[in-house]
Structure formats: C-alpha cells, structure tokens
Design a protein that fits this description.
single chain; 304 residues; two-stranded antiparallel sheet; 43% helix; disordered C terminus
Length: 304
C-alpha cells in the first residue's frame, strides 16, 4: 500500500512536466535502452528479419530505432495520463469517429479490433469522449500489484471499464442486453493453440486468437478495425474501418483473416508503429493445426 502511494506520487509529479521536457527525457532513455541495455533487441531484430526480409539491414536498423523511440514515447505519454486533461488528449488524438455513429444508432453493440500500435493508451481515453457507447476494454493484468493498481486507476480515469482477460466471460454477462463497444487488442499471441486460427501474416504462418471472432459471431455484432499513425511526435491519428456488419454470416476464420490482412497492410505502411518487442512468432506451426488454417499459403516462405 505504501509503495503504491510513493510511486503514484512520484509519477504524478513527473507527469506535470511539459511534453517538450518529457520527450527530451525519452530521447535520453532511448540512448540507455538501445545502446547500453539492449532491451529485447534480439527479439526485435529477429522479428524484423522474419517479417521484413525484403528490407536491407540498414533499413531494418532504422525501423528498430524508430520503434524504440515510439515505445519510450508511449511509456512517457502513458505517465502523462496521470495529470492530462480531456482537452489535452482531444487535441492530440483524432480519428474518423463518425464510423461508430450509425452502428450505435442501430441499437447494436460493437467490437473494435486494434493491434499493438502506438499509442493505444491515449486512444481509448479519447474514444470515450467521441461515442455514446459504454467502452469496455479487455486487458492482461500486470504481475506487480503496485503497478497494476496504478495502471488500472489511470486507464479507468474517464469512465472506461477494463476487464481482465481471465475474467472476461463472467464480466461480460453483466452487459447482456446492454449496448457497449468492446475493445480488443486482437493480435495477441494465443495460449490455446488447438483453438487458434493460423494464417499467412507478413509472410509467416502465424497463430491468431479465435476469441475476438467467436465473440463477435456469437453476439452477431458489427466489428470495426482500427489502426493508428503518428503524423508528428505527440500526435496520433486513428483510422476506423467497418469490417463486418453480420459476423454470423462469415465462414469460420474469415473475420480473423480479414483482420490479419488489415493489420498486415498497416504494419507494412508504418512498421515503426508496431510492437516488435512482442514475441509474436513464439509458436511453431504443426500439421495438426491444419483444420484451423485460413487463407492462401502457396507463397508462404517462412514458418515461425
């Protein structure tokens, strides 16, 4: 309990600094993380080599450096949320929010599928101010009780509801018959491979969690995909795209395939925005997963 208040107080004071000072600190931390500590550099460069083999070593190194800058900026920006007001965020995160309006007016709930693109922590706060939906977000709790408590307080500051992934079924039962928007970071590496869908993603046979698709089909609610770009430092632009109005009409795996193609396009266009330090290809392909394979594979050159 004491440690929570100590860390919260320190981070809150840190968050009061102007963004220009915070970004100077982010640049200084980059030098330490990239050149001295080498945080997850092996994972990052292995992922870049697998996914972007057509790039030169120099190009992949440049993408890696930009990624680390974005990662550390995201960390600094998340701390800023402790004191940032709604107007501060509204100026810095924009999107075509109007995509959600006709879905809400139809009386239906909605799923929003996002990838690990920066800065999702700022994004969900601004989303809440631009739609009449109740925002529910599924997340993975942190192992540290102190930081989990602080992050939970930070994430729910403006009324969004965060649901621990392990408690999703029970928590969602409370919203039966209610209208909501469920946000899912849908490019997670799955734990249950027997139920995962496999598809060609960035030229690699990749496992995708089936939960987002299964939930959308079971409730038969529209699904919106979202990607994020960074026009300039400290400013983000989200692009929302209605992926499917009637998921129950799709074949098994089809929605997951659409999402994989959507994310693939976003990553190829702005590779520095994706979380390359995530061990996305830690699972090995096995022929026993053949029944869950979707999409074309004739040109797939690599397996994880």
């Amino acid at each position: 309990m004491v440690m929570y208040y100590v860390f919260y107080g320190l981070f809150y004071l840190f968050s009061l600094l102007p963004m220009r000072i915070l970004y100077l600190l982010s640049d200084a931390i980059f030098l330490l993380v990239y050149y001295v500590l080498g945080y997850r550099k092996k994972v990052v460069f292995e992922n870049l080599q697998k996914a972007l083999p057509q790039k030169t070593d120099g190009q992949r190194e440049q993408i890696a450096k930009q990624f680390y800058h974005n990662l550390l900026d995201s960390f600094i920006e998340t701390i800023k949320l402790l004191s940032a007001g709604k107007s501060f965020l509204a100026k810095r995160v924009t999107a075509n929010w109007e995509v959600l309006e006709p879905i809400f007016k139809s009386g239906k709930s909605c799923q929003l599928h996002l990838g690990h693109t920066f800065n999702w922590e700022w994004g969900h706060h601004v989303l809440a101010a631009n739609t009449a939906y109740n925002i529910l977000v599924v997340y993975m709790p942190m192992s540290s009780a102190t930081f989990e408590r602080m992050m939970y307080k930070l994430r729910t500051r403006y009324g969004n509801t965060f649901i621990a992934a392990g408690n999703m079924s029970k928590a969602m039962s409370e919203y039966k018959g209610k209208q909501y928007l469920l946000g899912l970071v849908a490019d997670q590496s799955p734990g249950a491979l027997h139920s995962a869908y496999w598809t060609n993603f960035l030229g690699i046979l990749t496992a995708f969690v089936s939960g987002p698709e299964n939930g959308a089909k079971a409730a038969n609610i529209p699904v919106v995909f979202a990607s994020i770009t960074k026009p300039k430092r400290g400013y983000y632009r989200a692009t929302l795209e209605l992926a499917c109005e009637d998921p129950s009409a799709l074949k098994d795996g089809e929605l997951t395939l659409l999402y994989a193609r959507f994310m693939e396009k976003a990553i190829r266009k702005n590779p520095e925005m994706w979380l390359w330090s995530h061990r996305r290809w830690k699972h090995k392909w096995n022929p026993q997963y053949e029944k869950n394979r979707v999409g074309g594979f004739a040109n797939t050159a690599q397996h994880p």
